[in-house]
Amino acid sequence: MYSTKNPSLRINEADLKCKNGCGYYGNAEWEGYCSKCHHEHIQRERIKKSGGLRGLDHGERDFVGDKHTRSPVGFSKFEEKKRQQAEKKTKLPKLSVFRKSSSSKDSSRAEQFQELSNAAPELEKLKQDYHDLFSLVSQSVQHDVCRFITSLNTKILKNADLVSVEELSEIVQNFYQVFAKRMEANVIYADVSQEKKEMLLDYVEKYVMTCLYTILFCPPSTADEEKDLSIQNRIRQLNWVNAQHLDCRINETKSEVCDLVYTAISDMLGMDSAKAPQDKLNCVVRCCRNIFLLLQQSVGGPASADEFLPALIFIVLKANPARLKSNINYVTRFCNASRLMSGEGGYYFTNLCCAVSFIENLTAESLNMAVEEFEQCMSGEVAPPSTWESTLMMCEGMHLMYEQLAMLEDMHNRYSSFVDGASGLKEEMHKFKSDITKEVALVLARTPLTIQPKKAPTDIDSENPSCEALPAPIVPQVVARQLGLELATVKKIESTKDLQPDSRASTPPRDCFSMSPPFGLNRSLDELITPDDIFAAQESLSFVQELTSVNYDIDLSDLSTENSYAEDVPTADELRGGVVLPLETRPTEDLTQSLLDTAESPTGGLLPSPIKPVCTGEYQGFAAQGCQIPSIPCDTGDTQSLKFDTCGTVDPGSSQVSVVGETVDSVASDGRSGNKTEETLVQILSGIMTTFDTLF
Amino acid sequence: MASTTGTVSSSGSYNFKVVLLGEGCVGKTSVMLRYVEDKFNEKHITTLQASFLNKKINLGGKRVNLSIWDTAGQEKFHALGPIYYRMSNGAILVYDITDEDSFQKVKNWVKELKKMLGSEICLIIAGNKLDLEKQRNVSVQDAEEYANSVGAKHFHTSAKLNQGIEEMFLELSQRMIERAQENNQQRANSLGRSGSTRRNVVVVEDEDAIAQSKSGCCGGVSTAS
């Protein structure tokens, strides 16, 4: 494949052998030596020559010198180069030919370098990160640093394919030293503080390594990859190892500790994604700090190395970081040795190396297990009861449990507060009930007093004389119309009307009431109106409503008086007394008046008109009477409406009243439909009139 | 040779790496905590870890940076020792005066260190828990004799009572400075170079050391264990 590309480069095999004659193939880049002999040669050369700076010049000189002899071969792609290197390892004879050609591709390397430095976005970020630093140092320092970076990059790229990674590491480490010395010795760095020098050194390292990461990390010439795989498999095999096996004091059931374990693991895994060795080192530092944090949680004090190392091993086992060996080797090779051998990072990295080494050489003994058990676990036959996975599951379960417990607690709290509220409400209700009962008792204690005086119609009857005038006007009306009584009586009535206009308004209800008894109203009223019923009605009134009991007491007592007077209707004397009663009581008692007046005032307005025709058209006969009679239903209708007004508030009372209303209605309908009833009515009225006449 | 790496920093101050070795529960961590805590009480004791600590001291006008590394003392981690003490300038071997076994352990460590690092490393043997003098199981004479026989300095310390610890670290620092100066002198003499070239030579030596350390990390560890 390569020969077809560059067939002209074929040379004799003898020319390919090492100049030392050790039997291995030599290389033009190694001045005709094989890698081993070349290394020795270089060492000798270096000791002969004077030091690092010149050594760098030497490199530069080589670089320039090679340029002339090189034939340009366009292998710019990194993949191809990788493959070449892989094949180099297999030591194919053909490869030596290729190597010769590949050694002379410097121009393409420069391109490659350009490519690498342009491609990596990390470099831009790095430049930004260190922007502040560079703004603080002089221009010449910046230039010098850039020059160093470029020279190192070129040197590494030049040697990348040719020397082993160990030699590359040597070059890089040497370069770090040279750069450090230069910063110490050169005048342009004189005013740069020690701290900034360290930062510059870091910058150079980070920049170059980020640039060359793809070439220097896990180079195919090494066995890093196989080691990665083997350690990965090893860790996978050891997945059953738990904290107890390692005598590691990690309290896995504690959620904070668990979180820290996860953080530490992700830090450890993050090592692979970092590019610069120092960044990788920082990942390790972060991871270890988290381990110390979690140990602090578990141990309760600053953790010592005795606790730290097992915990780190545990984390490494659980993290199983990708390309662990490659990363460790990369850091060891290319991280500034002075950083790696001292300081926190160095210590943690050393511990990581220890952890890996421990894992690699782990035996049953180191886990305090019987050999058979260990073997069984390793082969996967037996899984120890508490593996990491089950612990994780437990942890998750615990988390859930705690969450649910918290929820239950919340619900319990809410429930208890609800119960408190309910009991409070209950108490309030009890209090309310007792209050009500008290009030009712109070009302009950009060009500008999108010009812009794009103229940006695006799008292009101005694007031008769003052109301004498009232009953008279009505009786003549009817008689005058229907029976054609003497005008004198009619006039008499009219004069009484004139004299007492109020009484004229109040007559119609009196009419109704006076009329109703003959139609058997008294019977039903007798049944319904008992003192107990009235009390019940009063109770309910006072219970439900805010209205003062007095109102209704009186109202009901009015009804009761009406009823009671209705009871007495059969006898004319009592009837007269009953008629008088409402007229008398109303003006005296305000509340009754308000209710009854509103009910009667419209009727009072309506009534005079029926009366007037009576006066003018006395001789119109039955037709006129027929017209006039409906005025009664109008009244009854009003009494009914009066009843409905009260009905909303007084249930038991309304039933009584409604009975009255219905009966009155029936009276009206009867009166309307049949003339016979009218006649009887007229007869009764005439009877009444005669009695009045006799009275007067 | 490797242990001298990083001894003299570019600024002229000394950077020393000191490892604490010894069996578990002999009080390595306490010794270290006591030493760092007493001088920088408010600063350092709040740290969450007690396994790695830096301490700057001034000894006879020379600035010394001590990086003190604690090691896991459990027997099963014994094999990891080489990774820890690699490139260290000094080692403090701690034993418990009430525990004869821990003293035997110190002897093992000394043997191993001598074998791996030669005489490059400065050794201090510390008999800790002096406050438990009544329960002493390791005789003072035995300990002193053994220390002298291996070229180590013996100290009696008590982390609890803060006895002998400051002195021990000062002595170790002094020894390490002397050793570093000796090394530099030797190197300068053997190579016959001036100061400026010696610096370059040091660079070359460092490269070797790094190469060695690499093998130590990957291959060397497995062989050691």
From TrEMBL, chain A:
Residue ranges constituting the A20-type domain according to the UniProt record: 12-46
Transmembrane segments: none
Region Disordered, residue ranges: 50-91, 496-516
Highest taxon in the source lineage: Eukaryota
Domain VPS9, residue spans: 225-368
Residue ranges, compositional bias (Basic and acidic residues): 55-69, 77-90
One GO term describing the cellular component: endocytic vesicle
ATP-binding keyword on record: no
Gene3D superfamilies the UniProt entry points to: 1.10.246.120, 1.20.5.4770, VPS9 domain
Pfam families: DUF5601 (PF18151), VPS9 (PF02204), zf-A20 (PF01754)
GO biological process: vesicle-mediated transport
Cited PROSITE patterns: VPS9, ZF_A20
Protein name: Rab5 GDP/GTP exchange factor
TrEMBL record, chain B:
Single GO cellular component term: endomembrane system
Record keyword Membrane present: yes
Gene3D superfamilies the UniProt entry points to: P-loop containing nucleotide triphosphate hydrolases
Membrane topology: Lipid-anchor
Swiss-Prot/TrEMBL keywords: GTP-binding, Lipoprotein, Membrane, Nucleotide-binding, Prenylation, Protein transport, Transport
GO MF: GTP binding; GTPase activity
Taxonomic superkingdom: Eukaryota
Keyword Metal-binding: no
BP terms from Gene Ontology: protein transport; Rab protein signal transduction
Source organism: Zootermopsis nevadensis (Dampwood termite)
Intracellular or extracellular location(s): Endomembrane system
Protein name: Ras-related protein Rab-21
SMART domains noted in UniProt: RAB (SM00175), RAN (SM00176), RAS (SM00173), RHO (SM00174)
Family the entry assigns: Belongs to the small GTPase superfamily. Rab family.
